[in-house]
């Protein structure tokens, strides 16, 4: 993907937040990272805030252009993301979902081209939603926008009034 591609519009706020809050942690934090040469990584993280201890275990597997992330928190929630780069030139696709939340699935597709970035997200739920954003420019300066659409389903045949 081009080195002069702008940051996707949906990531601009994330970069600003990281700039202000990254590496500023006043809580007790412990991280254990184990990496293998075969592309597998295991990370255990624990944080103590006041008298509450929270933690999670995450694993990541990299093989070629595919990355599989899986994270388990202290409430037994499992978050999974499967990302594939270069399905088509300059693209990245990611499928993510959470267990036991069956209404949390989404599919993200990014197209990064020199001086242009287009991102689309589709919710894989009974009432799907669609988000889209675009940015043009360079890494240093970009201009963009985003939109959101909820796709409503028509009423079922059983709720339609009968005409006599």
Low-confidence stretches: none
**Overall geometric form:** globular
Helix count, DSSP H or I runs of 4 or more residues: 1
Domains (count): 1
Record field, number of beta strands: 10
Residues in helix, %: under 10%
As laid out across the biggest beta sheet, the strand order is 1-2-3-4-5-6-7-8-9-10
Beta-strand fraction estimate: over 45%
CA radius of gyration is 20 Å
Listing every helix as H and every strand as E from the N terminus to the C terminus, the arrangement reads: HEEEEEEEEEE
Structural class per helix/strand content? mainly beta
CA(first)-CA(last) distance: 61 Å
Mean pLDDT, nearest integer? 83
What topology does this entry show?
Layout: H1 12-21, E1 28-35, E2 40-49, E3 52-63, E4 66-73, E5 78-85, E6 91-99, E7 106-113, E8 116-123, E9 129-137, E10 142-150
Antiparallel strand pairs: 1-2, 2-3, 3-4, 4-5, 5-6, 6-7, 7-8, 8-9, 9-10
